[in-house]
Structure to design on (406 residues):
């Protein structure tokens, strides 16, 4: 079936009937653009239009399909040929419509999947549901779009595509969890419990667990447990952001001398209470450190947060800075002072953490990080380590080497 030849034949006979494309289109109930497409051979008229079109042009359907006038003696042969061509054309149209529907279904499936990751929050169960529904819709469209006669093969390919797509989504979800610290979309159970003062939300996935510690607080952090280690072992819990303040991060600022102002500033920025802003001063003569925090001590001390932070900061600073001898922490409501000798004597297991000038990170985690959740421990050790001066006005002087965090 030569569409270009048929198109030229339609145009020729339309002109013989002294009709414009718009007039012919009006008589057939189509747009003049459709008539233009027929005549340029870009597409064929719909089968339902063959009879009214031929009637308007004064030709037979057989002549329309041949694209020319047919002599009487050739009519039968052309008729048989055109019947076969029409059947083939009809089947092609059916296949094209089937493909179009399949593509529409696949696009709908993709939109469902996209909404799972874009529209809904990770906490919502709708995220996983929409991605599953979208995947099933997409695979259904793919099944009907496949040009494979063997139904078993089509089904096998479709099932394989379903699991491949879900695997891809699962990998993307895992990357999002580890990179952006958010709950996993694909999880089969969520539980909430409290350990000391820490609210812990646990998300159980098929291949890993995610622990959201200090949930719904400024010091919230995530632990992704791929080996499911913490189902039988204690969780590493601290009241601060572990990624920022934990020993695994702050150990990079270990130094032999207090005089490196940049290093001290970076270390203080990682430690708790830095979120309130601070300035610091270094006493090079007596190897002391003075830190002024931009908050009131009692204002930020909910659940002993200031006490825990100051104890943690003091121990961390003395362990990490070899020649640091004394620390003074100033607040608008008071000041807290301590020194190395007092902390070494009062803080339990201090010398188990520091062996041969090296910090044992596992021991630091056991004796410092985890201990910050023990309210009784913090209260007892804090009283031994710090001397408090209420309502003391800071004697802080801005020197050239002072670092200020706004």
């Amino acid at each position: 079936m030569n569409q270009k030849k048929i198109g030229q034949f339609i145009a020729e006979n339309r002109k013989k009937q002294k009709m414009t494309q718009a007039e012919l289109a009006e008589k057939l109930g189509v747009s003049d653009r459709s008539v233009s497409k027929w005549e340029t051979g870009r597409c064929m008229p719909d089968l339902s239009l063959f009879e009214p079109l031929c009637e308007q042009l004064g030709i037979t359907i057989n002549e329309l399909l041949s694209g020319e006038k047919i002599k009487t003696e050739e009519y039968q042969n052309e008729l048989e040929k055109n019947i076969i061509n029409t059947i083939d054309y009809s089947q092609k149209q059916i296949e094209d419509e089937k493909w179009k529907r399949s593509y529409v279904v696949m696009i709908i499936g993709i939109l469902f999947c996209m909404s799972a990751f874009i529209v809904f929050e990770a906490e919502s169960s709708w995220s996983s549901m929409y991605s599953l529904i979208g995947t099933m819709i997409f695979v259904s469209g793919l099944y009907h779009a496949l040009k494979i006669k063997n139904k078993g093969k089509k089904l096998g390919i479709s099932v394989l595509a379903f699991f491949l797509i879900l695997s891809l989504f699962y990998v993307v979800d895992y990357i999002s969890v580890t990179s952006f610290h958010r709950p996993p979309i694909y999880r089969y159970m969520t539980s909430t419990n409290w350990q000391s003062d820490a609210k812990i939300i646990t998300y159980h996935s098929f291949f890993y667990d995610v622990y959201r510690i200090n949930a719904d607080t400024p010091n919230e952090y995530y632990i992704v447990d791929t080996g499911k280690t913490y189902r039988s072992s204690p969780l590493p819990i601290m009241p601060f952001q572990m990624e920022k303040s934990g020993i695994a991060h702050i150990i990079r600022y270990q130094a032999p001398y207090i005089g490196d102002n940049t290093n001290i500033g970076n270390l203080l920025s990682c430690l708790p209470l830095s979120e309130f802003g601070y300035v610091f001063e270094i006493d090079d003569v007596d190897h002391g450190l003075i830190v002024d925090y931009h908050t009131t001590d009692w204002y930020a001390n909910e659940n002993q947060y200031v006490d825990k932070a100051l104890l943690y900061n003091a121990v961390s600073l003395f362990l990490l800075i070899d020649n640091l001898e004394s620390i003074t922490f100033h607040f608008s409501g008071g000041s807290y002072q301590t020194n190395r000798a007092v902390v070494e004597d009062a803080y339990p297991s201090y010398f188990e953490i520091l062996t041969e000038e090296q910090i044992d990170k596992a021991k630091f985690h056991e004796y410092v990080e985890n201990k910050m959740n023990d309210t009784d421990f913090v209260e007892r050790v804090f009283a031994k380590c710090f001397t408090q001066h209420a309502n003391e006005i800071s004697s802080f002087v801005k020197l050239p080497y002072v670092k200020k965090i706004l």
Remarks:
- The chain has four domains: 3-70, 97-180, 189-232, 244-405.
- The longest strand covers residues 189-195.
